[in-house]
Amino acid sequence: MADLIPVVVPPQFTREGNTNHLHEHKPILVGRPYSYGTAGFREHADQLPFILYRIGYLASLRARTTGKAIGVMITASHNPEQDNGVKIIDPDGEMLAEEWETYATELVNASDEEFPTAVRALETQLNDPPLGSTGSIVVCGRDTRASGQLLTQAARAGATLFRTQFEDRGLVTTPQLHYIVYVLNHASFGPAGEEGYYRHHALTFKELFDKLSKSLTNYTPKLHLDCANGIGAQKMRKLERKLPNGALNIHFRNETGVLNHECGADIVKISHKAPAGFEDVPVNERCAVFDGDADRLVYFYKKEDGQIELLDGDKIALLIAKFYKEHLSSLGLEDECTFACVQTAYANGNSTRYLEEELGITPICVPTGVKHLHHEAAKYDCAIYFEANGHGTVTYSDRFYELLERSDSEAAFRLRVMSRLINKIVGDAMADLLAVELILRHYDWSVQEWAAMYEDAPNKQIKITVFDRAAFITTKDEQKLIQPGSLQVLIDEAVKRRGEKARAFVRPSGTENIVRVYAEAASQADADLLAAEIARATDDYKDCDSDS
Ligand code: NG1
Ligand code: ZN
């Protein structure tokens, strides 16, 4: 049996306070257990140093167990600047395997007294993975939040507890860290590191761009980009410099202000309003929006009536699906190649209808959270997955690529290059933006023509802060509440009153201590009223406790 591994024991405290990497005892202000949600741990940044210390350790254990590079991304995405978060990236650039999410939750909720025992138990359960095995390394990255630096130190302290190699990649977008980890473990995929990321995307973009017609009537390269005052600003500028001259004319906005403040993909999607800083943008011009860590992308344009026309993740998915579907048909690969489009309950009802009726693609609905979409997509030779909020990508199998390589037609060439351009590892705002721009160029479409693919069913989303989100339990498809059952009865009645086209559901967030109300109806006024009515009903349940 392997020797017991020595554990550096921090000073002893209970869960009322836990010790961080600086050996400081900090009170825990959160009255509920921490949980590794759909995007890892997210809290006020002050709460996070001891969590990062422990997650740094867990990432090193994962690296030792797999003998591979593992990522630690420090970000709270679209949430406010004062929050932060952490998630672990697995060797294939995917979200952490589910059983490891449980280990993460157990380790983080252990008191200081329990922590060394929890560590030993885990090491034993995993057969004491070797220290310093070749290939095992923890690679850490962070977004622009001020707290990121201290949290990186905490992750380093935890990761190096047992001498695992730790590399700080500094400021990167979330998808860039996924790419970096993937390439470290799959050297043949593409050029390594952040510079490699730019090279890969710029060269692939150019390959397709060079083949597309330059005499265009409706498409224009001018684009206004809301960077959410986040990491996407500096990184997209770097990528843009490497693109062919004249391919894109990006007007960068919201580059250095307060992160996600009145801007960014989440706010634009939920409020249906232009971000701050877009007051002088003329009507009808194409605008794109990143979120704080540049893994979400939505588009919009301002209309004459002062409203915006939003082109969200569903519209992006359908644009890409149309492109893929038409190419597969023209290559005669429709039967040979399994193809799907994966959505969640938040997908607009009209996007689902368009997929089915106009594109002839059977939509697949999975629970919210990237890992669910990604896992479903991976079952097909080629699949497009997108959340309505703008997170998504295209995945494809080796077989798909081989099928395309058999043909030297223009269509096969375009699909091959497009598939390499889109970041198959994870939803990536920068890569998605390049893909959308090339597809619009291919069709010679204005943003209005793209928007006209289908009209969104009027919809409304509301967030409600609750005491314990675990008190709200839904069916697997997340469209009905099992608990509190009496709230579901109220929702059903409210939906019925708004007519045939109405649809609504309430679901607990996996990233914040809130529940989300989503409603669709025949008119915007009806959708607003339906959401408000359900929000009021939900509010009466906000103090529910999962134990009661
Ligand atoms: P939660 O908070 O579980 O709804 C949100 C998004 C998810 C996903 C995660 C990860 C919505 C309705 N939910 O999850 O789709 O993107 O954040 O960031 O947009
Ligand atoms: Zn994000």
TrEMBL record:
<protein>
    <recommendedName>
        <fullName>Phosphoacetylglucosamine mutase</fullName>
        <ecNumber>5.4.2.3</ecNumber>
    </recommendedName>
</protein>
<dbReference type="GO" id="GO:0004610">
    <property type="term" value="F:phosphoacetylglucosamine mutase activity"/>
</dbReference>
<comment type="similarity">
    <text>Belongs to the phosphohexose mutase family.</text>
</comment>
<dbReference type="GO" id="GO:0000287">
    <property type="term" value="F:magnesium ion binding"/>
</dbReference>
<comment type="function">
    <text>Catalyzes the conversion of GlcNAc-6-P into GlcNAc-1-P during the synthesis of uridine diphosphate/UDP-GlcNAc, a sugar nucleotide critical to multiple glycosylation pathways including protein N- and O-glycosylation.</text>
</comment>
<feature type="binding site">
    <location>
        <position position="516"/>
    </location>
    <ligand>
        <name>substrate</name>
    </ligand>
</feature>
<feature type="active site" description="Phosphoserine intermediate">
    <location>
        <position position="77"/>
    </location>
</feature>
<dbReference type="InterPro" id="IPR049022">
    <property type="entry name" value="AMG1_III"/>
</dbReference>
<feature type="binding site">
    <location>
        <position position="293"/>
    </location>
    <ligand>
        <name>Mg(2+)</name>
    </ligand>
</feature>
<feature type="domain" description="Phosphoacetylglucosamine mutase AMG1">
    <location>
        <begin position="312"/>
        <end position="445"/>
    </location>
</feature>
<keyword id="KW-0479">Metal-binding</keyword>
<feature type="binding site" description="via phosphate group">
    <location>
        <position position="77"/>
    </location>
    <ligand>
        <name>Mg(2+)</name>
    </ligand>
</feature>
<feature type="domain" description="Phosphoacetylglucosamine mutase AMG1">
    <location>
        <begin position="192"/>
        <end position="298"/>
    </location>
</feature>
<feature type="binding site">
    <location>
        <position position="295"/>
    </location>
    <ligand>
        <name>Mg(2+)</name>
    </ligand>
</feature>
<comment type="pathway">
    <text>Nucleotide-sugar biosynthesis; UDP-N-acetyl-alpha-D-glucosamine biosynthesis; N-acetyl-alpha-D-glucosamine 1-phosphate from alpha-D-glucosamine 6-phosphate (route I): step 2/2.</text>
</comment>
<dbReference type="Pfam" id="PF21405">
    <property type="entry name" value="AMG1_II"/>
</dbReference>
<keyword id="KW-0597">Phosphoprotein</keyword>
<dbReference type="Pfam" id="PF21404">
    <property type="entry name" value="AMG1_III"/>
</dbReference>
<keyword id="KW-0413">Isomerase</keyword>
<dbReference type="Pfam" id="PF00408">
    <property type="entry name" value="PGM_PMM_IV"/>
</dbReference>
<dbReference type="InterPro" id="IPR016066">
    <property type="entry name" value="A-D-PHexomutase_CS"/>
</dbReference>
<dbReference type="InterPro" id="IPR036900">
    <property type="entry name" value="A-D-PHexomutase_C_sf"/>
</dbReference>
<dbReference type="GO" id="GO:0005975">
    <property type="term" value="P:carbohydrate metabolic process"/>
</dbReference>
<dbReference type="InterPro" id="IPR005844">
    <property type="entry name" value="A-D-PHexomutase_a/b/a-I"/>
</dbReference>
<feature type="domain" description="Alpha-D-phosphohexomutase alpha/beta/alpha">
    <location>
        <begin position="62"/>
        <end position="112"/>
    </location>
</feature>
<dbReference type="InterPro" id="IPR016657">
    <property type="entry name" value="PAGM"/>
</dbReference>
<dbReference type="Pfam" id="PF02878">
    <property type="entry name" value="PGM_PMM_I"/>
</dbReference>
<keyword id="KW-0460">Magnesium</keyword>
<feature type="binding site">
    <location>
        <begin position="387"/>
        <end position="389"/>
    </location>
    <ligand>
        <name>substrate</name>
    </ligand>
</feature>
<feature type="binding site">
    <location>
        <begin position="507"/>
        <end position="511"/>
    </location>
    <ligand>
        <name>substrate</name>
    </ligand>
</feature>
<dbReference type="InterPro" id="IPR049023">
    <property type="entry name" value="AMG1_II"/>
</dbReference>
<feature type="domain" description="Alpha-D-phosphohexomutase C-terminal">
    <location>
        <begin position="484"/>
        <end position="536"/>
    </location>
</feature>
<dbReference type="InterPro" id="IPR016055">
    <property type="entry name" value="A-D-PHexomutase_a/b/a-I/II/III"/>
</dbReference>
<dbReference type="InterPro" id="IPR005843">
    <property type="entry name" value="A-D-PHexomutase_C"/>
</dbReference>
<dbReference type="GO" id="GO:0006048">
    <property type="term" value="P:UDP-N-acetylglucosamine biosynthetic process"/>
</dbReference>
<feature type="binding site">
    <location>
        <position position="291"/>
    </location>
    <ligand>
        <name>Mg(2+)</name>
    </ligand>
</feature>
